[in-house]
Amino acid sequence: MPQGDLELDKAKFCQNLKSKKPSSCSASNPPSVPGFDPSWEPNGCGTGGLANWIADKILSSAYTDSYSGEINAPFAGVSFLAACNAHDRCWGLAADKDQCDLAFRQTMDAACSGLSTTSGINNCLGFSGIYHGAVTSDLGNSNYEDSVSDFNCAAWAADMEENGCQS
């Protein structure tokens, strides 16, 4: 194929790619998501800031006898941090929400199973249910949709860059 035809095809390809730009997406400043940004980091349990403060207050008042005071490890001797980080990554990759949420619950429940007493396991499973309920709520659905939008933007920006298209 002559060089001129390749340039025309590339121009058409880039124009087509530009037409698929997700709304509110910047090719020069895409969101940080796993798989596209090597510096991406999960945020642990919670969403940070005021939301974590509110969650801490609710857990402290509802579970005065069993809440550890640490949102990443709400029950003494059990950490949900690995489950929360894996869930952040799953959503960040725009994977199936129901599968991400189920794996999140199963990982937290598995962390609880290492406790030595039935009452401890049951209390810990209560925390697992609260955390799972938070991510499957309407607020969780909105956060998941934001994660999917961020992933789609990052993927589009990467396509633009990899193909030498100007935004």
Q: Looking at CATH, which topology would you report?
A: Phospholipase A2
The residue fraction in helices comes out at 55-70%
Average pLDDT level:
86
Kindly give the count of domains. Answer: 1
The description of the largest β-sheet is: none
H-E order: HHHHHH
The gyration radius over C-alpha positions equals: 21 Å
Counting DSSP E segments of at least 2 residues, the number of strands comes to 0
Q: List low-confidence stretches.
A: none
Net shape: elongated
In CATH, the architecture is Up-down Bundle
Number of helices: 6
User: Regarding CATH, which class?
Assistant: Mainly Alpha
- The N- to C-terminal Cα distance equals 27 Å
Task: Note down, in words, how this protein is organized.
The chain is mainly alpha-helical and 167 residues long. The chain has one domain (38-162): Phospholipase A2 (Up-down Bundle). It is built from 6 helices and no strands. The chain has helices at residues 3-19, 49-62, 81-92, 97-112, 118-136, 138-162. Helix 4 (97-112) runs antiparallel to helix 5. The longest helix has 25 residues, at 138-162.
